[in-house]
Amino acid sequence: MVLKQKEIDTWQEKLPLLKRIIDLDPVVWLNDDRRKMSVMPTMPLKMQDIKEAEQLWHRFAPFLMKAFPETNGVIESPVQKGQNLKSELDNYFSSAVDGELYLKCDNELPIAGSIKARGGIYEVLHHAESLAIDAGLITKQDNYERFASNRFKAFFKNYSIGVGSTGNLGLSIGIISAALGFSVTVYMSRDAKQWKKDLLRKKGVTVQEFAGDFSEAIYAGRLKTNENPKGYFVDDEDSKHLFLGYSVAAIRLQKQLEEQKIQIDENHPLFVYLPCGVGGSPGGITFGLKQVFGDHVHCFFVEPTHSPSVLIGLLTGEMERISVQDFGIDNHTEADGLAVGRPSRFATGISKHLLSGIYTVRDEQLFKILALLYDNEKIYVEPSAAAGIIGPWNVMHSNYLKQSNIHTENITHIAWLTGGGLVPEAEMKQFYGKGKRLIKKEGE
Ligand SMILES: *Cc1c(COP(=O)(O)O)cnc(C)c1O
């Protein structure tokens, strides 16, 4: 459904920012709906749900240790200081921002090499546990190493799992489902990279390719999977379990910041910049961080100028009922993890009360930042994952600080590096080379 020009004009009159979004200009939008903590009790989830999700991860630690020894039983990533990168970018943008820059390296997450390891693996483990308990195969007190046994694999073989994906969610769901023994099918959208399909097929996953975009892949996958009474569809457009899996990151991050003696309080605010597709991973993490740090944390989402799905959903108030294509925006971006035209219903309903704002970024900018990240910190990420890095420079120059009365000297900025761990070296070199060429051209 593309809106008629007259309807688009009416929206634009009401919302002046919309014109710049449709023109594909990078924008910074501040969320006026952001509420203080008093709204929390009405949320569909609570801190207790996050704690229970963390306990599920604990129960599965022996399984993870057995099936994926490289995890040591825990799927977590390091936080590190990005001091060289910060100096470089202060220079590059000719403006030094206050505070320190840290990088949350989800590109190093084991098994899936992206933030999808948090939500995707959590949802599949949750489903596997429910099936095994219902069948009387296990109780929550038992040692979950048994999930790696042939007996369990034979049991799960009768059940199927489906997922629609632009790539990374498919990798995470596909790899963990196949390891447990499920029959798993990944419905891939047109943006999905060839190497991701090849890798999944090698792991025994069925890959169905679609000419359409992410929403179409989800739609087809949902229909097909639900035809089977023993089928389970991981629905990125509306999943509470994905959301909870992501939210656990907040309690882990709290502990890491404590260990590094990084204080977060009224005079030491935390700013977090999260690349956003359907809004599930940034939404879950924002929800968790708000539970942990309350008003002292400020979360910003980042979307490509060609795929501002959550931005348009929130700005118009139409949420998942409207897509970027409705406004004539093409949803074509090299940031394949963010190539989403329509926001998640579940996640966006929560985020709208909590997030501070959204900014958009051009693809060329992502490649340049990706190259600068490697040059200064020796970290390789995929284009989607570079989106959070420019957050401090974007947000510090907006009206946000004035509106919120924030002391800037002590800010801890965290750019969430959301993926890139499994990208083949040749592909990564191409990303890097492209970034370097763009930077050089700019200097001429
Ligand atoms: C999926 C993904 C995101 C965004 O997560 P959503 O839940 O879709 O908002 C960000 N970065 C990467 C690398 C991803 O794969």
TrEMBL record:
One of its GO terms (biological process) is D-serine catabolic process. Residues 93-391 form the Tryptophan synthase beta chain-like PALP domain. Keywords: Lyase, Pyridoxal phosphate. It comes from Virgibacillus oceani. InterPro entries: D_Ser_am_lyase (IPR011780), Ser/Thr_Dehydratase (IPR050147), TrpB-like_PALP (IPR001926), TrpB-like_PALP_sf (IPR036052). Its cofactor is pyridoxal 5'-phosphate. It catalyses: D-serine = pyruvate + NH4(+). Belongs to the serine/threonine dehydratase family. DsdA subfamily. The modification N6-(pyridoxal phosphate)lysine is found at K116. Its EC number is 4.3.1.18. This is Probable D-serine dehydratase. The keyword Cell wall biogenesis/degradation does not apply. Transmembrane segments: none annotated. One of its GO terms (molecular function) is D-serine ammonia-lyase activity.
